[in-house]
Design goal:
By secondary structure, the chain is mostly helical. It has helices at residues 4-14, 19-26, 30-38, 48-55, 59-63, 67-85, 91-103, 108-121, 125-145, 149-165, 169-177, 186-189, 196-224, 229-250. The chain has three domains: 4-63, Orthogonal Bundle (434 Repressor (Amino-terminal Domain)); 67-179, Serine Threonine Protein Phosphatase 5, Tetratricopeptide repeat (Alpha Horseshoe), CATH 1.25.40; 188-250. The longest helix is centred in the C-terminal third of the chain and has 29 residues, at 196-224.
Amino acid sequence: MTSLSDRLKRLRKINDLTQEQLSDCMGVSPQAVSRWETGATCPDISALPQLAEIFNITVDELLGVDEKKKQKEISDVISACEKKINKNITEEPIARLREALGFYPNNDRLLTCLMYALYAASEDEDLCREYDSEIVSIYYRIQKYSTDNYCRNESKRLMFRHYCDTNRPDEAKRIAAEMPKIETSFERNIYWALEEKERAQYLKECISDDLRQLVWDIWAFSVHAKLEKDSIKRLDRLREGIEKSVKTEFSLKD
């Protein structure tokens, strides 16, 4: 792999620039550019975006990062961390995600996964207070700078839940008002673009998802509606009956 100094020299020559011309563009002395190209010193990290813009490349390309390798590394970290978070293991994923962000500080997917890990850890009241400002900071950072719709929407979901869990209903409602409407969602619209053979399987998956949501809604209503015991029992029987009937009719698995 070539060094940053070698890449800078090659990029300068490819772009037909002298050291003096590059130094004028960067607002530094020609001697500074010369030291960059000999490897005696390196450009300040704040200068990298400007250098990348001059050469019409990304900062990653300027630094010689292999994009496929980078994306695989990021995906591997996220996959491993999510598996642990889903098992209520959060301390190790938080440390690993922070380490990965040291290498890729502006990666939206890593930031979103870290937000998820911090939110999951916040079931502990002490950690909830400790991580609150970081969760909020990541949310606003993603909303301000990210163009990744998944990261923007997932961070909204996590921020909404965190505000609910920390008894900030006004902030939670404000986030909820910014969430996508179900009528415009992928799930409610992709059906029309599917081929005939794909539609049956897709609808079966939708029925499975809708069933889980309906069963949860009935259970939540029985918990929060302050019903008499007999009414709760009737709802439980209704919920169990619906679940059994739908699963049998559509051969759905748990």
